[in-house]
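Quick one, T. Sequence first:
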Amino acid sequence: MKRIVFLLCAVMLFACMNEVDNVAETPVVVFEFGKVSNVSTGETTAAITADRPFVKIDGKYDHDAKLTLLYHRSDSLDNSFEIIDDFELLIGEVRFLIFDLEPGTTYSAFMHLESSTGETAQSERFDFTTKPLENINGAKYDININSKRGLFATVHISNIRYIVDNVDIELDCLCFEYRRYKNFNYQEWTTYEFGTEEIADGEVEFEIPSNGEEYLDELTTYEYIISFVPKDESYPTYKTAEGNPYYTFKMGYAEIEASLSTPALTLENDILRVVVERVDLFYDGVSIDDYKSGFPSYAIRYRIKGAEEWEQRSCTRENGGMSVTFGVKGVEPNTTYEFCAVVYAGKGDGHKGFYSDIAEICINPTN
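C-alpha cells:
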C-alpha cells in the first residue's frame, strides 16, 4: 500500500513539474503604444503622428509585429472600420496619412498591433475632426506621393477643384512639375500635363518618371509645383508654390538585386587572370547599364584557402563583366587560393555587398 502511495505521489510530482515547465515556456508579450502627439486635419485629409508603438517578446523587440490604424465616423452605427497599413517612420514616431474623408466630420480611431506569435492589442481610442468647407477662391486638392522606392514615385492627386466665389471653374489642364531639391545647377523642371478629360473625375494618378525621363535617385529630395489652368483665360493660373517655398518629397531605398558569375581562373607564365563573365546589377528592376546614378563599386576578393580574412583588389565593370590579373611569382608552391567577385551598391543603410560563388586554384609558380 505504501509503495502504491509513493508511486502515485511521484506521478503527481512529475505532472506538476511538467505544468511548471509548460508555464515557463509561455512567452511574455508586452505591447507599448505611447501617445498620439499630433493630429493635423484638412477638409478631407488627416495626418496622425504618434509615439512609435512596439512589441517585446521575452524582453526582445518583435521586428515582425504588424501595425495598423483603424478609423470610422464617430456616428457610425456599425462596427466596421477602414484600415490603414501604410505609414511613415519618423525618429521615434510614426505618421499615418488618411485621404478622402468628409469635411466637418468627426472620426474615431485607434492603433492596432499584432505580434509575430499572433497576440493582438489596441491603443486607446481618440477622435479627430476634419475642417468644414470654407468659402474660398483658388485651388483645392489632396496629394499623396508614394516615394518608398528609390527610382520611382507614384503621385495621386485627388479632390481637384478651382473655385471662384464658391463656384467650381472648369479646368483646361493640370500640370505637375518636379526637379531635384536645392539643385544649384538649376536643373530644368520635368512636367506632366493632364487635360480636361483626364481630370474629369477630380483626380489623377501617375508614376514618375514614365516617359523616358531621367530616373529618380534613392534617398534624394525633390521639389514640386502643381499648376491649375482654367479654360476661361480671364481667370489666372494658380500655382501651389507661387511666392512660397516649394513642396518636397524624399525618395526611399532602391530594391537592389545582383547576379555575378563564378570567377574563371587561368594561370599562364606566372600570371593569374581572373575573369567574371557577367555582373548584372538592378535598382528597382532597372539595369545599371541604364541607371547612371547608382555608382556601385566592384572588386575581386582573394585569400589562401582556410584563412579567415579576405583581401581584395578593386576593378571596373566593362562589357557586362570584370577582370583582373595577379602576378604569382614568388608564391609558395602548392598553395591553394580562393577567389570571389563582389559588387557594393546602395546608399546609406541600404549599402551592401553582393557576392559570387567561390572559385579556387592551386598555384605552382615556375620559381
